[in-house]
Amino acid sequence: MAQAHSEPTDYFRLDDLLTDEQRMVRDSVREWVRQKVKPKANQWAQQNHFPISLVEEMGEMGIFGPFLPQEYGGTEADQTTYGLIMQELEAGDSAIRSLASVQSSLVIYPIWKFGSPEQRTRLLPKLASGQWLGAFGLTEPNHGSDPGSMETHFDDKGDHFLLNGAKMWITNAPICDMAIVWAKDPQGVVRGLIVERGFEGFSTPETHDKWSLRASATGELVFDNVKVPKENILPDAFGLKAPMSCLNSARYGIAWGAIGAAADCYESALAYALQRQQFQKPIAAFQLTQKKLAEMLTEITKAQLLAWRLGSLRDKGLDKPAQISMAKRNNVAMALEVARTSRQILGAMGITGDFPMMRHAMNLESVITYEGTHDIHLLITGMDITGISAFK
Ligand code: TGC
Ligand code: FAD
Questions:
Q1: CB of 101 closer than 6 A to ligand 1?
Q2: Does residue 277 form part of some domain?
Q3: Boundary (domain end) residue, out of 133, 164, 194
Q4: 57 Cα: distance to centroid of ligand 1 (angstroms)
Q5: What is the pTM assigned to this prediction?
Q6: What's the gap in Å between 371 CA and the centre of ligand 2?
Q7: What sections of 162-279 are H helices per DSSP?
Q8: Which of 67, 63, 75 is CA-nearest to residue 33?
Q9: Residue of 376, 379, 380, 383 to test ligand 2 pocket, by largest number of atoms within 8 Å of CB
Q10: Centre of ligand 1 from the C-alpha of residue 183, in Å
Q11: Of residues 90, 220, 299, 371, which has the active-site annotation?
């Protein structure tokens, strides 16, 4: 039988650019995903099941907020390590990477960056260990790409804030212990509030009937005269740039995560093409199959180099949001294309749950929409190039 290259998706020896520590973390998450996620991912998606039992295990492995200082339960990992973790999780399923993105970049990160010392000490260790799960509420029923027009707001009632409004399409909402909620203060300034499960008037209905990210719990955050203690406001977050800076971290993670999904599809397609015979030959022997494989590997390799370079820039504080937009946009679109092309290589077998392509493709339809849509990221790049906003 024909043989595949031994490192099918490390064509440009990216491994050589990684430190021993980065490789060690990557390999341990890869092994965990191989054992705990891949064998069950199809079943969870088919049954619309969120594998909550994995949360504490992921916390023990240091997957949540790896960039945090040790005093708060982190490992002070660099940005490339964070990206590699996301890559390996998404090779399992985008829902597992989503869970980790939200917990790390959208919940832990704002508390670390904008929280009070009391908020950090009280919440970060619980979130890093997976004892508590968080959600991030920015999108609303009437405001997705344009979060600056949000309607959710709070009044100052002297000894507490009174919060009203609703957030929609929120990852982890139905199962979260707390949520970082972005809402306007009486002066119309966007602020971040920590809303905890059990606060009266706070509910989190689940969103059903999804064809994408079926192993992720998505829902709403509804605030009906919720009394929020004053000590639950993030003291250092003012304006839309605060939630946007959290999105920089999450979008960066997605740029890596998408590579994992693409690699999982490509490797499955390559293995299949080498063993599936038609016309007395492996289908890998046909030029059209080779074209598909060669083009997919080229695009995966370009995406890897983009993500790796972005991680290096972030470690030096030299990255800019428009670069993150370019990487998120390119890499997610690449992964979606690879999922579809890989699926075609398998013919009919590609539509079954025995192979990961359809699941990844369906998941990636959410990934190309959330954290800023494909077109919004293009406009962010366009604005950076020209200095002219084409949004409004
Ligand atoms: P604009 O006037 O451009 O900006 C308002 C203020 O925000 C600042 N800013 C940023 N700061 C840091 N990083 C960024 N990436 C930033 N983008 C904007 C900006 O400098 C300004 O600051 P200041 O001091 O001047 O006030 O805003 P705009 O109203 O024109 O809107 C444009 C914008 C950027 C909001 C839009 O382009 C955009 O990105 N829309 C997409 C919204 C989005 O990504 N939502 C994601 C929701 S969370 C989610 O999807 C989680 S899914 C999680 C999972 O399951 O993995
Ligand atoms: P809209 O903003 O209504 O956009 C619809 C279409 O119009 C898109 O194609 C868009 O590109 C286009 N469009 C909009 N404005 C412009 C413009 N100026 N120029 C050109 N085209 C434009 N949000 C959170 O806050 N927290 C979460 O945890 C979260 N998790 C999610 C999980 C899932 C599974 C999904 C699907 C979404 C999640 N989201 C979350 C919401 C997500 O961020 C939004 O869906 C996304 O920002 C787009 O908003 P929208 O769906 O309202 O689309």
A1: yes
A2: yes
A3: 133
A4: 32
A5: 0.97
A6: 7
A7: 241-275
A8: 63
A9: 376
A10: 14
A11: 371
Number of domains observed in the structure of the chain: 3
* Residue 245 sits in the same domain as residue 228: no
Q: pLDDT by residue (tens digit) across 262-283?
A: 999 999 999 999 999 999 999 9
Report pLDDT digits (tens) over 163-191. Answer: 999 999 999 999 999 999 999 999 999 99
Between the alpha carbon of residue 318 and those of residues 79, 84, 118, 313, 321, the distances in Å are 12, 19, 31, 5, 10
Our mutation pick for probing the ligand 2 site, out of 136, 152, 169, counting the most ligand atoms within 8 A of Cβ, is 169
User: Looking at the structure, do residues 222 and 284 belong to the same domain, yes or no?
Assistant: no
Ligand 2 binding pocket (C-beta < 6 A) is 102, 136-139, 144-145, 169-171, 213, 218, 366, 369-373, 375-376, 379, 391
Exposure b/e, 348-382, CB count within 10 A at least 16 = b = eebeeeebbbbbbbbbbebbbbbbbeeebbebbbb
Contact 116, 229 (CB under 8 A): no
Select from 241, 320, 331, 375 the residue to mutate for testing ligand 1; criterion: most ligand atoms less than 8 Å from CB: 241
Alpha helices in 236-368 (DSSP H): 241-275, 287-315, 321-345, 357-367
Long-range contacts of 339-345 (CB under 8 A, 24+ apart): 339/261, 339/262, 339/265, 339/364, 341/269, 341/292, 341/295, 341/296, 342/265, 342/266, 342/268, 342/269, 342/296, 343/265, 343/269, 344/292, 345/269, 345/272, 345/273, 345/283, 345/289, 345/292, 345/293
Q: What CATH number has the domain bearing residue 79?
A: 1.10.540.10
How far apart (Å, rounded) are the C-alpha atoms in residues 335 and 264? 10
pLDDT higher than 90, residue 339: yes
Ligand 1 pocket member 391 (CB < 6 A): yes
Place of tokens 């920089």: 248
Determine the distance separating the centroid of ligand 1 and the alpha carbon of 243, expressed in angstroms: 7
- Residues 224, 207, single domain; the answer is yes
Tell me whether residue 60 is one of the annotated catalytic residues. no
Dump pLDDT digits (tens) for 26-50. 999 999 999 999 999 999 999 999 9
